[in-house]
């Protein structure tokens, strides 16, 4: 008989990191020339984040209108069966990446 591996659960730690990502994408969009996008799908429990540099933003904003991302991340979260076992670390990595786009306190990025 095959061993049944219990699915991970979405914890308050996941939720706190997801909230931090939401806060950061707003800051990146307001404080830099990049547009940051964030999407959470409750259907498949996934997070998708991407950054669009100025050159690829809307033509009305001076870009080429392609909206191609310079960076993106997709992560399945518990209890989805494809959730990474280290999903908390992966969320932390997204936070680190977004924080890297922000200007340093008291100076430029």
Key structural traits:
109 residues, three-stranded antiparallel sheet, 3 strands
Helix content: 25-40%
Which structural class do the helices and strands define?
A: alpha+beta
**Structure annotation, total helices:** 2
Task: Characterize the main sheet.
Answer: 3 strands, antiparallel
Beta-strand residue fraction: 15-25%
Order of helices and strands: HEEEH
Instruction: Identify the overall geometry.
Output: globular
Mean pLDDT: 90
N-to-C terminal Cα separation, in Å?
56 Å
Radius of gyration: 16 Å
The number of E-state strands comes to 3
Biggest sheet: strand arrangement: 1-2-3
Low-confidence stretches: none
Quick structural summary:
The chain has 109 residues and is of the alpha+beta class. It has helices spanning 12-31, 87-101; strands at residues 35-41, 46-52, 71-76. It is built from two helices and three strands; from the N terminus they run αβββα.
Task: Give a verbal description of the structure.
The chain is of the alpha+beta class. The chain is 32% helix and 18% strand. The protein has helices at 12-31, 87-101, and strands at 35-41, 46-52, 71-76. Strands 1-2-3 form a three-stranded antiparallel sheet, with helices on one face. A hairpin with a 4-residue loop joins strand 1 (35-41) and strand 2 (46-52). The chain is globular, with a radius of gyration of 16 Å. The protein starts with 11 loop residues before the first helix and ends in an 8-residue tail after the last helix. The mean pLDDT is 90.
